[in-house]
Design goal:
globular, alpha/beta, 11 helices, Peroxisomal Thiolase, Chain A, domain 1, Beta-ketoacyl synthase N-terminal-like domain-containing protein, Ketoacyl_synth_N, Beta-ketoacyl_synthase
């Protein structure tokens, strides 16, 4: 399959990731049940009349995609592909509330129209007047990874040269209440949380939007080459290492040849054991984690992909992400391993670009 290059990366997250110097200001968020994204001044990017009608995830995605396209120097992509876990849940909740409050009568269709998961990709296309391939993947925590697989196919088949791909998820009040009730979110007394040594179940929930432009040709500002992606829905703990080794072997890598591994430790003691098992394979690699910076959410892997791009480009690993103290020599490649609650395991392999 032909090479695919990540030519730009933009992210709105719990950290100030739109700031050029964000790597120097990364701050662990370990004391709150729900972590809010740092939002930009939307009026600088979106007409005020439109802002009022947009949900948070649409606004975040509109701005993040703007930054990604601008950095890549692409005005109109050949395809727009978005991955999301819970989509435009704010508008979904508003619509359902209207149904209940109005006894299923005299309903305005606006919230219903804007509640569908593909609203994000559609709004971006409308803003760009882009009539190209437009697709949305909804695969819980592997939505971005499925989107990346689609990008590779689009470029390999010659259907696209530059693709805008992103991941996005927002929070809503009612959904966060339900996540607290079903113990997806940790109890208040379990905070602050030590993500690497947690003895309690549940997570701190985050949100965010990450967008990338992937292309057939690399540019002067390219971050990395996307080598491969692997996804599996369920995995037994004792199969973890085999799953990773098989993926690496397929791409002609041995575990000791991986320079850095980014693991999705979330503070959920029940499911973080997969990452602990994976760590045993990489005794010679820099081991990193990221959800103490972003929170856990369906498309948190967008944040880790964004971080991996900057690590490869800058050849610098932020101290706050390090599990071990091994960071010697050039960082040539990074493996990303993520899942959500022990389901939907994904592997993404990125390679740095030599001068």
């Amino acid at each position: 399959m032909s090479a695919v290059y990540i030519n730009s990366a933009a992210c709105i997250s719990v950290q100030d990731t739109l700031n050029e110097n964000f790597l120097q200001h990364l701050k662990p968020e370990i004391s709150a049940q729900v972590l809010k994204a740092i939002e930009p001044a939307y009026k600088e990017f979106i007409p005020p009349a439109m802002i009022r009608r947009m949900s948070k995830t649409v606004k975040m995605s509109s701005v993040a995609s703007h930054y990604a396209l601008k950095e890549a120097g692409v005005e109109n992509p050949d395809a727009i592909i978005v991955g999301t876990g819970i989509g435009c849940s704010q508008d979904s909740e508003k619509f359902l509330k209207n149904v209940l409050d109005n006894n299923e009568e005299f309903l305005t269709p606006t919230y219903f129209i804007q509640s569908t998961h593909n609203t994000v990709a559609g709004q971006i296309a409308l803003g760009l007047q882009c009539h190209a391939y437009n697709f949305t993947y909804v695969n819980t925590s592997s939505s971005l990874e499925f989107s990346l697989l689609d990008v590779k196919l689009q470029i390999a088949d010659g259907d696209a040269k530059n693709v805008l791909v992103g991941s996005t998820d927002e929070q809503t009040e009612r959904t966060m209440e339900l996540y607290t009730l079903n113990k997806t979110i940790k109890k208040e007394e379990d905070f602050p949380v030590d993500h690497l040594n947690s003895k309690t179940d549940g997570v701190a929930w985050g949100e965010g939007s990450s967008f990338f432009v992937l292309g057939k040709e690399k540019s002067e500002n390219s971050y990395a080459r996307l080598i491969d992606i692997e996804i599996i829905n369920t995995l037994e703990l004792n199969e973890t290492q085999q799953f990773i080794e098989k993926f690496l072997a397929k791409n002609n890598f041995l575990p000791e040849e991986i320079d850095a591994v980014i693991l999705g430790f979330s503070g959920d003691a029940k499911s973080d054991v997969y990452y602990t098992k994976a760590m045993e394979l990489f005794t010679d690699s820099s081991l990193l984690y990221f959800k103490h910076l972003s929170g856990e959410f369906n498309t948190a892997s967008g944040f880790s992909t964004f971080m991996a791009c900057h690590i490869l480009k800058n050849q610098e690993i932020p101290e706050v992400m390090m599990i071990n103290d091994l960071k010697e020599g050039e960082i040539r490649n990074i493996l990303l391993y993520n899942h959500l609650g022990g389901n939907d395991h994904s592997l993404v392999l990125l390679e740095g670009l030599k001068d």
